[in-house]
Inverse folding.
């Protein structure tokens, strides 16, 4: 049981954005400044970032309009701008979509080929420009990991990859920058954080006791604070806990010696690729059905433990009953406390592409997660979500 | 509430020592190979390390005989060897003492003055040679932090310091290398790990919920597995959990936004400096008395919570009673399950230096920890340990 733990991203947590200029100037004088829509202008963050960067003598080249579920077209444009302007560092300000896109721009800047090949053909990523991030949404964990997911709407593909070289050099995590996140985005982001942990937590492999406990703590943190942040958007304690839990859910620490294929994310990526729905919402709809589908003699103890240690349910002595209760507690949280839409039907999605999406989710093979899932299994799980 | 999280050490966990040569050659061709006594020769580790390093074309310069409670004389010698031989990287193989000494050798190699000034005068550490470690004892966490404690027996001083620049570049953590650790050293190391967490956990500041839960998980991990490893030294699961918990107890992650002065370590450093006792044993003797001394209206809730969440004690509704039970559970663990000597008297230590040690522990001032401790307080705590 071997693993490598490599967490090189320097995190500035709290009100430390004033150090942004100093951090950027470590890498050079020209930054590609990547962001999404107008929200950072409305909030004043745009002015703070540009002021701090220019105050440190950094020349900024702006690329705005990065989409939720970021598109390969944006990545291509960013990589081209890096080459044209001799960019030294990519500065990503926003949520996971902006950060993910920025990472592939940073890698694309170093190659002569279409950056989509990083995703579609797993083309080698041997070099990348340094990436510095300012996070405005607790959800994907992109601020501390080497991952990124890019959508190609032409091919109906949403593909991701994890590489240490794509980990940001530094990330600024100020919980106050997430006060303006809407209740819906807070809920969807929280469902995303939970899913990252659950993809690792639900396993039939023996685990390190310590990491199980840490995963349970992270899940309890999300369950405790997501509803608080939805009701009181400027609750610093809630936003801080969500933000830090989000980073640790996916930076590689909890995976430890127990890597396994993720199950729910590949299914959700098909939903987003076909219907462009919010990632966390898709995960929320899928997860309880996936757990239900995974129930068997081997998985029941783990599902029951989840109910006991994460939701504080008293064990009944009957694993079947305890698993029922655990899955119900999770559904109640996602669709009750977080108020997320509970079915694909509720989003106007029908079964017409399920067979095709299922094939793509398992890449024509079998995903070896909590239970092995072939295309037929995934199709059944999609059906359960209708 | 701001903090910086910076964890640059790359960890190779499990049976991956075969990558040692590849890691060393990143930094150059000449390594100072620092280790303690003959135990790594007896275990075969010496031969593996030298074979792997030489196989990668690394020239090794050996410095053995690093003491438990490592001495400044060893550090001076190592720094001198680094300069004389043009060393590129310091390779430390052993427990925390060897690693601590190696860090100050790496820093001493870059300056013209006596490295003791790093400790006694807080002389600036602006540069250091890269340090790579192979850990053989789970205790101090030196493999992933920037700390190190050095003893000067001439001045009766045992002083430490934390600097990011002293964090190892890479550490090899193979739990199997700790199979040969004796029951006593396993117990003392486990007391050290627990103490690192407790120094942070016991606070009257409000905390991040997430980090509290993670600290409780780390403490539960030590409490569960230390007795297992003592009874069955080659229990991989137990050794792996202790080893990984040890690194995370002190790498800075759990401190988060809540830095406070440590209380028990400065007291223990005086014990070790005066009597050269095993660090973890000194911590074990001091900790329950320190908690007892800290009891007041403000601290009782935290002590009670510790009993409930770490030892699984049922709350009685009476905080005084719950704190009693928590401190008793800790004592039972340290002196019962771990079998450590419970008093200073049991080690042949009397009160003759208490006043002087107490003055030195608080540096003539007040340590602001769980409760503020002046010299008179520390002296009383020493008395409680007799």
């Amino acid at each position: 049981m071997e693993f490598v733990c490599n967490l090189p991203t320097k995190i500035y947590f709290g009100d430390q954005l004033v150090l942004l200029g100093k951090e950027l100037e470590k890498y050079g004088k020209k930054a590609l400044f990547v962001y999404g829509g107008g929200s950072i202008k409305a909030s004043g963050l745009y002015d703070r970032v540009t002021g701090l960067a220019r105050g440190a003598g950094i020349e900024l080249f702006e690329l705005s309009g990065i989409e939720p579920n970021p598109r390969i077209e944006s990545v291509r444009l960013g990589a081209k701008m890096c080459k044209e302007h001799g960019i030294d560092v990519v500065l990503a300000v926003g949520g996971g979509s902006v950060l993910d896109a920025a990472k592939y721009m940073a890698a694309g800047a170093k190659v002569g080929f279409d950056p989509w090949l990083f995703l579609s053909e797993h083309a080698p990523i041997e070099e990348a420009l340094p990436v510095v991030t300012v996070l405005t949404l607790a959800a994907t964990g992109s601020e501390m990991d080497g991952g990124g997911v890019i959508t190609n709407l032409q091919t109906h593909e949403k593909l991701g990859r994890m590489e240490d070289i794509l980990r940001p050099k530094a990330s600024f995590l100020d919980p106050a920058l997430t006060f303006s996140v809407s209740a819906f985005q807070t809920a969807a982001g929280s469902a995303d954080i939970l899913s990252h942990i659950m993809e690792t937590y639900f396993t039939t492999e023996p685990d390190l006791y310590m990491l199980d406990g840490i995963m349970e703590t992270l899940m309890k943190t999300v369950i405790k604070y997501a509803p608080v942040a939805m009701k009181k958007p400027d609750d610093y304690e809630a936003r801080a806990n969500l933000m830090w839990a989000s980073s640790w859910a996916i930076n590689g620490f909890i995976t430890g010696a127990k890597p396994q294929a993720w199950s729910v994310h590949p299914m959700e990526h098909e939903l987003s690729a076909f219907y462009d729905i919010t990632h966390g919402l898709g995960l929320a709809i899928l997860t309880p059905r996936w757990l239900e589908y995974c129930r068997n003699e081997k998985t029941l103890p783990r599902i029951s433990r989840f109910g006991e240690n994460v939701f504080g349910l008293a064990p009944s002595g009957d694993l079947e009953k305890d698993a029922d209760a655990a899955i119900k507690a999770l559904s109640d949280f996602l669709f009750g406390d977080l108020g997320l839409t509970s079915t694909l039907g509720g989003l106007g999605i029908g079964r017409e592409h399920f067979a095709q999406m299922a094939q793509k989710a398992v890449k024509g093979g079998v995903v070896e997660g909590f239970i092995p899932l072939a295309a037929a299994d995934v199709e059944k799980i999609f059906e359960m979500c209708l």
